[in-house]
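Training component of the fellowship. As part of building independent skills, the fellow (R.M.) carried out the full modelling exercise for a liganded target. The chosen ligand was adenosine-5'-diphosphate. The inputs are recorded below so that the supervisory panel can assess the work.
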Amino acid sequence: MLFTGLSGAGKSTIARAVAARLLEQGDLVSVLDGDEVRQVLSAGLGFDAEDRARNVARIAWVAAEIARVGGTAIAAPIAPFAAGRAQARRRAEAAGARFLLVHVATPLAVCEARDRKGLYAAAREGRLPDFTGVSSPYEAPLDADVTVDAAVAAVDEAADAVVAALAAVRR
Ligand SMILES: Nc1ncnc2c1ncn2[C@@H]1O[C@H](COP(=O)(O)OS(=O)(=O)O)[C@@H](OP(=O)(O)O)[C@H]1O
Ligand SMILES: Nc1ncnc2c1ncn2[C@@H]1O[C@H](COP(=O)(O)OP(=O)(O)O)[C@@H](O)[C@H]1O
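Fellow's submitted model of the complex:
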């Protein structure tokens, strides 16, 4: 399961809620959170297009390995580029897994108004280069399996929609 969306969109929060539901169902769940991946698996990578592609490719590889042995991998990077997301889908399917692309489509204005980490302000002031939605592109997916907007849906509602979409692809 690949979550994609802007910084602050709600990817981690909704991914964790989905993971909790799947654990209750007895799934073997591994959450590959964007921030945590950056500290370990992708330590040293930056935010230009090439490093973002490397980051998403690494996540996709680990997720496909988890799926190959029967686990459910939930990854929540920004994953701003369609090509990287498509590669993740191909890798998962090549591993014999089902793939779900979850677009957390919270509008930029809402993410920026929340600005929990002050990153949008820093990006607007030119102190943080290549910031998604400000000075680096976000290619909104045209192939999302489920779309949730955290400006409209509460965390529980968004998680319900994702779990329902997963159940549909598992049928
Ligand atoms: N320049 C720039 N652009 C976007 N994000 C930045 C940047 N610099 C640091 N951060 C912080 O890194 C988190 C995004 O990392 P990801 O690995 O998810 O990004 S990507 O998928 O490789 O594009 C992202 O975390 P989230 O806010 O949880 O999305 C940011 O906190
Ligand atoms: N409906 C919602 N869904 C998800 N997050 C929400 C929602 N409403 C408010 N939030 C808050 O928005 C923030 C989203 O942060 P986070 O999940 O880390 O986003 P991301 O991983 O996309 O950067 C959190 O502080 C969360 O509590």
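The panel noted the following from the submitted structure. The first strand starts at residue 2 and ends at 4. The chain has seven helices and five strands.
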